[in-house]
Amino acid sequence: MTTVLFVCTGNVHRSVLAERLLAARLPPGSEVRPESAGTEARPRAGMESATRAALEELGGDGSGFEGRPLTERLVAGAALVLGLAHEHREAAVRLAPAAMRRCFTLKEFVRLAGGPDGAGGGQGAVGGLGAVVAAAAARRGAAAPVPPEEDEIADPWGRPHDVLYGCAREIDTVVRKLVPLLGAGVPSI
Known about the structure:
189 residues, 41% helix
C-alpha cells in the first residue's frame, strides 16, 4: 500500500475531509491508502458531526474514523504528505526533514504535479507516484510563483456550517484533480 497523508491543525475538518473524499474517489482495488493527522490533534474516536454530514453529502464514508496527532513516524511512512495549509507542510518537514521533497500543500501538489500548464501535463501514472512526486518537487523552483493563499484551504473551525460545506466542496474539487495524478494506485494485471 502507498500512503498519502493529509495534515491540518486539529484533524477535525480539512484533513478528515481530504482523507475520506480521496478514499471515496479512488477506483476499486487502489493501492493508495489515504490517512490524516493534525498538528495539534488529540487522539479521539469518531468524527465531528458537522464534518461527517458534509462528507456524507459529498458521497464519503465517515465510519470508523479516529483522530490522531501528526508524528514523525506518520510523515516518514507516507509516500506523499499533503498539508491543507503551509503551516501543516512545514510541521511535517520539521518532524521528518528527510521527507521534505514529499511534503506539499494539497493545492500546491496538484498545481505542480499537473505539469507546466496545470492541466494534467504531469506524468500521471507513468513512472508511478514516486516519479510524480519527484517531478512536482523539481517544479517548485521553476513554476511561476502564486500568492501563498492560493495554495491553502482556509480553516472552517468555529465558522458557520455553510463555510464548512464550502470547504468540503473545495477539498472535493481538488481531490478529484489529485486522483489521476496518483496514477490511480491500481495494481497492474
